[in-house]
Amino acid sequence: MARKTKEDAQKTRQQLIEAAIVEFSTRGVASTTLTDIAEAAGVTRGAIYWHFSSKSEIFNAIWDQQLPLCDLIFDQLSLTNNDDPLCVLRERFIAALQYISRTPRQRALLQILYHKCEFNNEMTSECEIRRRIGFNYDNVRMLLEKGLAWGIISPQMNIDLTLIVFHGFFSGLIKNWLMNSENYNLYQQAPALVDNILATLNITRVPPVTYPVAS
């Protein structure tokens, strides 16, 4: 019975987290009340205080359990670090955009981050959230350095500046798409969008373009 009670408690806690994600992404963090979250989760307000002492604590719990995007798309990748680094980079960028476009939970999380949150001192900072779940500088730097070593990328390319460009491109693209996702089909256009940003690099050989069939 004790184990059952513990499992039930964990299930309720996760229900509250999932409800909070939806409510925060729809209403905004500041405009969402604990009562809103309780009603969305189908539990009493008292159940929230059994698991969380405040709205900020629920907010922090959301990001504490969230995996980096590179981990979430891992099983969708066919290429490894031993393959052509530019093809690997292209595949990972496309997979990331397509995962965001077709996964409501991921879209909701990014909606909160980009559009629905005013941070305070009790909340995990925006910088820390981005560091945990966002653009992985180390992985991209490794692939670019390998591209330089293989002679695929011009030695005149500045990797630090390229990382800034990549980050700005993808952050801006996702932020603007979330404002009105009906403007274009991000899933279908992800390959073309990635190819265009890669084309701005000082590359001596462009990887072959093969667009996956949209599902």
From TrEMBL:
Which residue intervals are the DNA-binding region?
Answer: 33-52
Residue intervals of the HTH tetR-type domain: 10-70
* Organism domain of life: Bacteria
Task: Quote the PROSITE patterns the UniProt record gives.
Answer: HTH_TETR_1 (PS01081), HTH_TETR_2 (PS50977)
> Does the keyword section mention Transcription regulation?
yes
**What InterPro entries does the record point to?**
DNA-bd_HTH_TetR-type_CS, Homeodomain-like_sf, HTH-type_Tx_Regulator, HTH_TetR, Tet_transcr_reg_TetR-rel_C_sf, Tscrpt_reg_MAATS_C
What are the protein's UniProt keywords?
Answer: DNA-binding, Repressor, Transcription, Transcription regulation
Q: Provide the protein name.
A: AcrEF/envCD operon transcriptional regulator
The scientific name of the source species is Lelliottia aquatilis
